[in-house]
Specification:
Strands 1-2 form a two-stranded antiparallel ribbon. α1 packs parallel to α8 and α3 runs antiparallel to α4. The chain is globular, with a radius of gyration of 16 Å. By secondary structure, the chain is mainly alpha-helical. The protein is built from eight helices and two strands, in the order αααααααββα. The mean pLDDT is 94. A hairpin with a 2-residue loop joins β1 and β2. The longest helix has 24 residues.
Length: 155
């Protein structure tokens, strides 16, 4: 699921320019770039909570809070990165995830997530896939409405 979701996300952003990544459809929407940053940081946060079995540190919260929360601060701060920068981050995060998952067995998936004990690890990683798929849908919607893009430019 994680690999398939990522492949469709990558296809959805193929060829986008910096201006297109930073474009805001309206005052309440997130940019495509901000959504890519969010996808990467959500995965990093779940790596910490499941692989390291701990809550985010104060430093991690400070570093990642804008991309986790998005909103007004995200619209202001999550700008100016090239598609290659986002893709490198997404690849790095996913490589770490797949490497860490391959070192664990299925029983590990049933363990409770210490920072959120009502959740098990299996649900946590389902949520990572679900979050990416949801935002990939937003990315496709935003891409189809970018100024200057031909009608029907949907990967």
């Amino acid at each position: 699921m994680l690999t398939y979701a990522r492949s469709t996300t990558l296809a959805a952003v193929e060829g986008l320019t910096l201006a297109e990544l930073d474009h805001l459809h309206d005052a309440a929407s997130n940019s495509i770039g901000a959504l890519l940053a969010h996808i990467a940081v959500v995965e990093r946060a779940y790596q910490v909570m499941t692989f390291e079995d701990r809550p985010l540190s104060a430093a991690e919260n400070a570093q990642w809070s804008t991309a986790l929360s998005l909103g007004d601060e995200g619209r202001r701060a999550l700008r100016g990165r090239s598609l290659d920068d986002y893709l490198d981050e997404l690849r790095s995060v996913r490589h770490s995830t797949l490497e860490s998952l391959s070192a664990r067995d299925d029983a590990w998936l049933e363990r409770s997530v210490s920072p959120a004990p009502r959740l098990n690890v299996h649900w946590a990683w389902f949520h990572v896939a679900e979050d990416e798929i949801n935002h990939r849908g937003q990315i496709r919607w935003l891409r189809a409405r970018l100024p200057g893009r031909p009608v029907g430019d949907r990967p």
